[in-house]
């Protein structure tokens, strides 16, 4: 399954780009501003934000200390699948390792990252990650 750019936000009853159940019961509410109940769910919502072109969610969910000044989403990249490899939470810190598959024109690839998250004021935020 492939998901496109900013104009392709799924309907509430459609499959969620992250591989979860429906968009309306999975990442949709988090993209709309609801707090993610776990670092893994925030990771899934960030993947979905890349898949649907929601740069505003990426900015909101990024730790202000490490967030870049500008966040853009490449409309030519199609995110085609997400696998969570590991998810560990310990207090207000968490690590989520994942594999995200993509396609850009005829090129295909896989991004592997071990991401760090922190809970600030009761909300999970992405801090940074190490790409394999």
TrEMBL record:
Q: Which InterPro entries match?
A: NTF2-like_dom_sf, YchJ-like_M
Gene3D superfamilies, from UniProt?
A: 3.10.450.50
> Could you tell me which residue ranges the YchJ-like middle NTF2-like domain spans?
38-129
User: What's the protein name?
Assistant: YchJ-like middle NTF2-like domain-containing protein
